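Internal tracking record. Fields below are filled automatically when a chain is submitted to the structure queue. Please do not edit lines marked as system-generated. If the sequence contains nonstandard residues, flag them in the REMARKS field before resubmitting.
Queue: standard
Priority: normal
Entity type: single polypeptide chain
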Amino acid sequence: MGHEAEANASFIQAIQLFRQFGLLIDYARALQRYGYSLLLRNSATSKSKQTVHNQLYQQALSYLREARDIFETSKARLDLEWVEHLLAHPVHP
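SYSTEM-GENERATED OUTPUT FOLLOWS
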């Protein structure tokens, strides 16, 4: 298994566990970190792979928006500020 696939599996497992056990802040933090990881990976993706490129970017933004909503509802101010910064200044290729 490659590093990307291993990282994806770890993030997805963490996200599922935090959600399953109702650990909302940890769930949102995992979404935020995974979203940021996807943004970074997206910026390194060749422009010749435009479809994959767009899918990663959209998925990353979706995770970051969900994390933002949870941080906002939970009044997790510092986490909210960080995810809003990521959404305002996403990594572009």
